Task: structure prediction
Amino acid sequence: MRETQTAAEARPYHHGDLRRALVDAARRILEAEGPTALSLRAVAREAGVSPAAPYHHFKDKAELLDAVADEGWQILSTGMTKAKADAEPRSKLNAIGIAYVCFARENPALYRVMYDAARDKEALPAQMQDNKDSAYCKVRDTMIELGADPAAATDLELATTAAWCAAHGLAEMAGFKQFDHLKAELGGEVPFLRAVLAHLGLFPHGKPD
Amino acid sequence: MRETQTAAEARPYHHGDLRRALVDAARRILEAEGPTALSLRAVAREAGVSPAAPYHHFKDKAELLDAVADEGWQILSTGMTKAKADAEPRSKLNAIGIAYVCFARENPALYRVMYDAARDKEALPAQMQDNKDSAYCKVRDTMIELGADPAAATDLELATTAAWCAAHGLAEMAGFKQFDHLKAELGGEVPFLRAVLAHLGLFPHGKPD
DNA sequence: TGTACATCAGTGAACGCGCGTTCACTGATGTAC
DNA sequence: TGTACATCAGTGAACGCGCGTTCACTGATGTAC
Result:
């Protein structure tokens, strides 16, 4: 398996799949040192190539970051799909919400890169609204399954947006120390997340747990 | 009025209130060029002093940023107080929420600095939980006024947190192009914000408008 | 009221740093015949 | 199957840049006598 290769490891002159290796290296840096450490040079270093090598695979730094962000959205989408499949019908939306927030909490640096990339374009990635499998459509379709009226298009979009906002807000806030005592009181981070989402009304949960 | 002075303007060797001028300069840069342009040197330049001058007033860059963030929290708090005072009793919470989101949307760069500073400390500013006049306490107290049980401490905190998350999430999402058609359909940005908050259930509104 | 002097709040030059990007190059690969 | 050659994917040195911070300094201020 090549994707966990580190800088010093021997490799032929031609890499084979440097593009892939660079994205992986970027994710390793994100996890270990956070978003501020994510420079093109650092990524090349981590992948064990010269600072110029990435330019054969990405036009510039932004394009690399876009690729990293893209992968993040895919992973998130997969996690949401799985969470939905595993949940009982009535708690599907709740499960998706928890999966979303947990992804953000487990990959905070990656999550930030995803949103920063989106902010630069002033748009969330196109796959969100168009792609049938996108995270956005998953939330919307689940709302319909739970009884939302698919004919009331504006209302449905507003509800989906509201749910997304709530999850995003919670994802960004959940790390603050202010909430440590609440987490302790409720028995952990996930119960805390569930409790906050429950207060947001949008996330009905069937039988708890 | 000194606070709008620009770099070239004549001024005596001793500035008078350089600390104030630096914070103002930082805010001008934020508004004009965004958070990535906010370097210590740029702030000094904008204030019309040498790059070393700020060090007589701030230990380092982070301390200047903290001061900027602090001012942001104060302005936000003031805006929320005013919004609450102006609203009818039953729509006070809704008014506070709108004021919060509008502040963030009108000062996006400042808002980001505020949260980045908080993230670095892994805590929202102390004034939030302790200070009777803080934004956090304002939301909580308003919830009590609207009928929340002040004896159910955990539940009250969860509800306040949920409201905060929703507002923060909306504040960060509202700028994306995806929502342009919703804003158009609903007649502007503020109606859109109201509609999303309404879906979040936490923000009861008395008579609309 | 004047003067000596400590203190304060600036200056401007310099430091080392890591960054994104470009360039001329070279080693490896694969295709045409 | 062997060879010529175009193309691809690397190298490594160099570019200019702006950054945060430090330093020895100096001009202005205010206080003690």
Summary: The radius of gyration of chain B is 19 Å. Residues 13-15, 18, 49-53, 56-57 of chain B lie near DNA strand C (CB under 10 Å from a C1'). Confidence is low (pLDDT under 50) at residues 1-9, 205-209 of chain B.
